[in-house]
Structure prediction request, 351 residues.
Amino acid sequence: MVAVNWRKIPTVLQPDELMDKAFSAATKKANLVDDPDKYHRVRKQMLAMIQSSCDILESTLRKWVSKWPSLDRLSSFDAALVDAAVGRDEFKQNLGGIQWAADKINELNREGQSRMAKHRSIEEFHDRRKHIYGRCASILRQIGPQLAWLNDARNIMREFPTIDATDPCIVVAGSPNVGKSALISSLSTGEPEVNSYPFTTKTLHVGHFEHRRRKYQMVDTPGLLDRPMIERNEIEMQAIAALENVGSVAVFLLDPSEQGGTSMESQLNLLDEVRYLLDDTPVVLVDGKMDLLGLNESDSHNPKSGNVAISATEGWGLDALRSHLIEIIGADVIDDPLSLPEGWHRKHIPE
Ligand SMILES: Nc1nc2c(ncn2[C@@H]2O[C@H](COP(=O)(O)OP(=O)(O)OP(=O)(O)O)[C@@H](O)[C@H]2O)c(=O)[nH]1
Ligand SMILES: [Mg+2]
Prediction:
């Protein structure tokens, strides 16, 4: 399962643009044909026009299909994103329409070649070429709505977060305004990506850091895990189920200062829901905005709650939190088969 780079999905041309591209390239090809005998020249030119325009149309359409992510190969999280944003069935149908057109053009190309072989006059050569062009145009016009749909879908999907299901992923949850995005930014090396989930109008942050050449991803979940269950729709539930699969660990960020506007009581209620939703994913409790709690940089835990304490804006406690997360995630990883079991020392191995 590879991560989809949503930004790499190509734009598709509209029918007129695609025809211009194919027909003008075909005319150039025809102009290269050189034969002193008019009859043979026109015949070769018309053949070249049919063949090269159909080839370009077909290969362009097939290239689009192949560059679009294949739904069957998406992680469940990515599939939920696509379903929520543009609809899984529509996605398949519209892409299927492009495939259909490519097959039709291929048939047309072969038909044009074989019919041309039977023609015996210059007029027939021209007419055959015109006929094929007309039918290409009609096929392309038929898929006009599909092409327009794909471009709209692309513009939506470009904003999706890229999450690699093979790398560990830290899901950051918590009430609105507790500092989730700030935490991801301060733990990330480099600028975090800013994306959006189709379920929410908010932007989300995806960050990364590396440890021992391993990449750790972090995603925040605005509007996804911070609302009561009752307000969620089916697609959001699917995405949450998928987050459970993709997440190695969840950070539940609390704001004991309550400066974010949510009382501790409702933050803790939300915690219960998140624990329930993410079921098997271990949850690490973090008290954020510790600079507002009268704590010092050296306090690694909040003495009141016993939770890990950090300040994203001051940069306090971040290294300790990162190490803690790496350690928890590491517990799930199968040990290096060449390493020795705990408590063993090389000197115990018989020489
Ligand atoms: N004093 C202080 N302020 C913080 C800290 N972390 C975040 N903030 C502030 O809290 C506010 C909310 O931070 P965000 O990171 O946007 O919070 P969020 O949880 O991503 O918010 P939503 O995405 O809207 O749910 C901002 O004004 C931040 O500057 C911190 O450690 N200390
Ligand atoms: Mg945010």
Remarks:
- The pocket of guanosine-5'-triphosphate (ligand 1) is lined by residues 174, 176-182, 202, 220, 222, 260, 288-289, 291-292, 311-313 (CB under 6 Å).
- The two ends are 43 Å apart (CA to CA).
